[in-house]
Amino acid sequence: MSPAFEKFKAYLDKLNHYSRVINLLSWDMYTTTPKLGFDGMAATDTYFSTEYFALYTSDEFYELVKTLNEPEEYEQLTPGYQFTVRKYKKNLEKDRKIPKDFYERFTAARNESQRAWTEAKNAADFSIFAPHLEKMIEYTKQQLAYTDPGKDVYDTLLGLYEEGMDSTTIDKVFEELKEGLLPLTRKILSAPQPDSSIFKGYYDPDAQKKVEKLLLSYMGFSFDAGVTAESEHPFTDGFSRYDVRVTNHFYEDNPFSSMFSAIHEGGHAIFEQNVDPALTGTAADDCCYMGVHESQSRFYENILGRNRNFWIPIYNKVQELLPELKRFSLDEFIRECNHIQASFIRTEADEVTYCMHILIRYEIEQAIFRDHVPASELPALWNQKYQEYLGITPANDAEGILQDMHWSDGSFGYFPTYLLGSIYDGMFLEALEKDLGSVDDILAAGEIRKITRWLNENIHWYGSLRLPKEVIEKVCQKELSAKPLLNYFEDKYSKIYQL
Amino acid sequence: MSPAFEKFKAYLDKLNHYSRVINLLSWDMYTTTPKLGFDGMAATDTYFSTEYFALYTSDEFYELVKTLNEPEEYEQLTPGYQFTVRKYKKNLEKDRKIPKDFYERFTAARNESQRAWTEAKNAADFSIFAPHLEKMIEYTKQQLAYTDPGKDVYDTLLGLYEEGMDSTTIDKVFEELKEGLLPLTRKILSAPQPDSSIFKGYYDPDAQKKVEKLLLSYMGFSFDAGVTAESEHPFTDGFSRYDVRVTNHFYEDNPFSSMFSAIHEGGHAIFEQNVDPALTGTAADDCCYMGVHESQSRFYENILGRNRNFWIPIYNKVQELLPELKRFSLDEFIRECNHIQASFIRTEADEVTYCMHILIRYEIEQAIFRDHVPASELPALWNQKYQEYLGITPANDAEGILQDMHWSDGSFGYFPTYLLGSIYDGMFLEALEKDLGSVDDILAAGEIRKITRWLNENIHWYGSLRLPKEVIEKVCQKELSAKPLLNYFEDKYSKIYQL
């Protein structure tokens, strides 16, 4: 250990302690904190977040990071620390260009904007949120003018969430997908549909919790290195590969929601639990590319979880734990899991129409940053696109443009990563079947852990070390393409809907 | 706000942020952290605990505290801040006398001792723990030689947990109790006993959780300012009056344990939820006297919870939530709640023999610090006293001297506060009935909230502002005495056991 690395390591450990408690405070606020305790937790969160930012952007740390990027130091580092000092240097060069007072104003405006969004959504009234959205757009542009002057704003935003994926690349695959998917979706939507109403009934939330645990264990989630909890919206929160937490929400009248959320979040969690332990404590110890991360949750949720064979070995056990399901045959159950419907809410959409929800958002984000469409005109644009792609128009803004919180805190450019994840999945499925043979057969034999192991070894192990394009290249030995996903949809739904 | 107070307040807020995250880390480790995540959480806990101690004992803070103790500053402070600066001055004067290297050695030895205790308990082999216990005794004496030179060690220890209660006072009331209670206990134990075996069966843990929530609400626990969780041993953890958390443990074969733990911890929690809001953020905002705190948990658990009338308004609801109880009449149920038995494990003892468990520990602590009995001789002393007071001898050290963890981390002098709590309860019961009339009638009428309100107004509201002796004086207008508790036991159990 060189003296410079020793100093850097001590500083990094300290930063890691700070981010751990910031993470823990947020975990607690989402899962546990009672109503009246929220202000106290939030004040402590603000305190440590501010301290963290000061430590992270300090001259002292920046100097250490620069020193470790010098060749004679850099070459001695392990890949995890090389990644860390490279990433921090790049980020700090940018972040240190943001004036402190601007940062504070942006933070304050973001908090106000989130509050206004909540109010607007509850009132189903976009006009409450519009001025804040306008501000978020302006502040975002301003921030990028500091950090990435002269670069295309929307491309830079996309790179924040999925490094190396610019709009040229994304346009190409999204167009490819849209061309094939629009006609397929229209065919599906006009075909005869199953009767969802047979699933009306009461599904004991305590029993659903037991099913969640069964599903997670079955997939390969480690309860030695993870826990489950409840929250308003399901999410995954990792402290390290040794402590990865998933949450869920249990609806009394819906047995599917918590099952597919469990499988989805389980996919995120299995990723984080299986990163190379040598990366622990470095910036590469989880996956910072949202598309790649999402590809894993969606692979489990859709490619595996919505496959009839996934359920063959466990459907009896699920029925034992949740006896209300005994009324339904496996065929009825799985038919409902693959029920394709035009609907308004992205997070509740099936795997096919989900793509449309993202395409719409991607096009609107481009309208914002490329065509400078003002906030006030966005609801009309939103509704027009829903009519065009899904043939439906939201009754109000709450089930329209106000449904997602992403834009309220300035997370522009995030949405496309969801669809990128699905597009990667099509390619991963091809690669996996080339290596292991038919997924149908593996699942039917109850050998899902074989698939998990393949994902562990080919994707999870590397944490953030490989950029998204490198992941695709290494795993699939192919250029990124939406074709495999399209083929998967066409094969699957032609059979199901007898097209 | 004087400039000195302003500085002090900013420093105190910072300390409060630190203690909040230390508390949260510990809460998470007890309730949530998965097995493999424990080391990560513990490392962060150590980091912030060390930082906290450095901030708390810094010259800067000590100077601020001293300044605010000057009359011209002190008189301007609210009672909560007066208490805070007084307490901190006293504690800092002592704590700053502890050499840093001694403190570190003690901390390391304490960790080793706790580990050795766990190992010894699992192996039921006291010899593994004996050298560590010897060390804990030595370090404790050494620490008090720094902080309280020339004072009686055991009296000083007692004062750490129940300020103002020295062994002269405690000896007097414990003797008073023992004299009456020993013959009563012997009479009870030789009377005919109910048949506990009828309660054998399976009691759904999920249903028990629902009963817990019912009991807590019924007593007056606020779920807006509190939550429930699970842990190996039940405990209460308060972040402020706005966020007080209780845990429980649910045994499939025992419906009583979780119910009485819920009522017990609920008593602690209702205390903390009802401290004067003006004290929030000061050192007086919870109760730092363990005996007074325990008096409230034990008042709910024993005086109220083991009273037949407590259950009259809710037994039907409890049976609805936990249908396995429908087999038992209220009389059978309550009879088992008041089943007095000689048993080995303190935490599972009934309210009468519980007192004996504490008397034994109190006498052994005196043997350690006054008669200098070496650790190696303590198991024999322990077993001899169990034979003398309860007529039973533990089969091994795990159900004997190794059962409690208190001595493993040097918490000598803590045990007596449990019994002080019960003795206070006898007196509080008298005072409460003088004010409100018969507790039986209030409970039978389903008006337990009246009792809660009386406790809120007379005890909880003051947090730590009143010393234990002042609490007794203000609430009971009497000297401390064990007579009321004895009277309560005699009345109640003469009827139940038809003595």
UniProtKB/TrEMBL annotation, chains A, B:
Cofactor(s) of this protein:
Zn(2+)
What does the record's cofactor remark say about binding? Binds 1 zinc ion per subunit.
User: What are the EC numbers?
Assistant: 3.4.17.19
Q: Where does Zn(2+) bind?
A: 264, 268, 294
> Which residues constitute the catalytic centre?
265
Q: Which domain of life is it from?
A: Bacteria
The GO terms this record gives for MF are:
metal ion binding; metallocarboxypeptidase activity
- Pfam families reported for this sequence: Peptidase_M32
Q: What family is this protein classified in?
A: Belongs to the peptidase M32 family.
The job of this chain, per UniProt, is described as: Broad specificity carboxypetidase that releases amino acids sequentially from the C-terminus, including neutral, aromatic, polar and basic residues.
Protein name in UniProt: Metal-dependent carboxypeptidase
